[in-house]
Amino acid sequence: MRVLLTTFAVRSHIYSLVPIAWALRAAGHDVCVATHPEGEEHVVSAGLPFAGVGEPIPSVGEQDTGGDVESGAAQDSGGTFGWADWPELLDLAETDPTTLTYDYLLGVFAAYTPMVFRYYTDGMVDGLVEFARRWKPDLVLWDTMSFAGPVAAAACGAAHARVLFGLDILGHARGAFLRAAARRPASACDDPLREWLDGVLRRHGRTFSEDVVVGQWTVDPVVSSLSLGTASPRIGMRYVPYNGPSVVPAWLAELDPEVPRVCVTMGISHREIWGADRVPVARLLDGIADLGVEVVATLSGGQRDGVDTERVRVVDFAPLDALLPLCSAVVSHGGAGSFQTALVHGVPQVLVPDMLWDTGLKASRLERLGAGLRVREVPATSALVERALTDRRLRDRATRLRREALGMPAPREVVPVLERLTARHGVR
């Protein structure tokens, strides 16, 4: 069969599709990855066929938000709040039933639709539909943050499924919103996400159905112990770390596996989107370096400002899949790659969530399971790292989650499931 994989041109999101793309190719299927033009390097370097569609992603503040955002601030009934604040005030990852009222969820979708979903979709959706109608995929696998994929699948009659990179916060919030809306008169309900998607679909001769939001099914790499319960049929798939083209650095071979070692990696998403890290990395490292352990920090550019490089081994990049097995703990922002790679290696995690997408919720759920710790105040970081290094129960529970992660079906084992579901759902 022909399988079209699509996401927006952000490196970490492209990387999350690579293992399943290669599993499909190894099984003999025709595979293509389509995204914005600037994603070419990341797709081609993974050895996968690439199709560039649409226009480059606009810089923050320059995207068309349909008039919902003005002068870099989002509006709500309480006034204005800045770009960096709204994801916490209107949290798609909220799970408290008392908070998940219709009005709250309406605000969440009114914000996320123009500021996230349209941002990553509008510039490529028409180009992707055109490509899909020409290439004729049997199956479209799409990133949960970008809706060009399900629109293209609907337009060309292909089966389609989401591929998650973390917790299914969209599916959870969407289910809560629909339940809350069902308790109100239809005339008193708005649905910003549906209204936008229906307009896009009608432009291509189709109309809205709820599977355009949550997929006909969902491929989920998160272990059941951490995942959210949602209505979308879930296909569990083991997370396979892919760090992009990399050389295992020679200094890794020199590390003593018996020496306590802490990896610090804070990602680049918050810096790229908001212009700075949520927490200055130097403040985190100061206390950790005083614990008498070896600290390895993967930092880029401005993240190195103020870091004492005499007490911390600072590197631009090291493949986490090779580094983390040599570490006794990891401090990270909770991004998809760092969180999941630590999970599959059973490394206790100390999380300083950047509060983008699901990082705060992952930190809380991992802490609740006793396999990690969440930093709520920066000065407490070193004490939490010390606990992660010495608390045997923490390590045992991290090991238990590792066994659960490794027990999930590998990508190659998921391929026959995709074949059966594609045959069932395709309409051509």
What is shown here, in short?
By secondary structure, the protein is of the alpha/beta class. The protein has 17 helices and 16 strands.
Alpha-beta content class: alpha/beta
Largest sheet, order of strands side by side?
Answer: 3-2-1-7-8-9-10
Number of strands: 16
* Total domains: 2
CATH topology of the largest domain: Rossmann fold
Which of globular, elongated, flat, extended, rod-shaped describes the shape? Answer: globular
Major β-sheet profile: 7 strands, parallel
CATH superfamily of the largest domain: Glycogen Phosphorylase B
The overall average pLDDT, rounded, is: 90
Low-confidence segments, given as residue ranges, are 65-82
Describe this structure in words.
It is globular and about 65 Å long. It is built from 17 helices and 16 strands. The protein has a seven-stranded parallel sheet, with helices on both faces. Strands 13-12-11-14-15-16 form a six-stranded parallel sheet, sandwiched between helices. A three-stranded antiparallel sheet has the order 4-5-6, covered by helices on one side. It folds into two domains: 2-238 and 409-425, Glycogen Phosphorylase B (Rossmann fold), CATH 3.40.50.2000; 250-406, 3-Layer(aba) Sandwich (Rossmann fold). The two termini are 13 Å apart. The protein is an alpha/beta fold and 428 residues long.
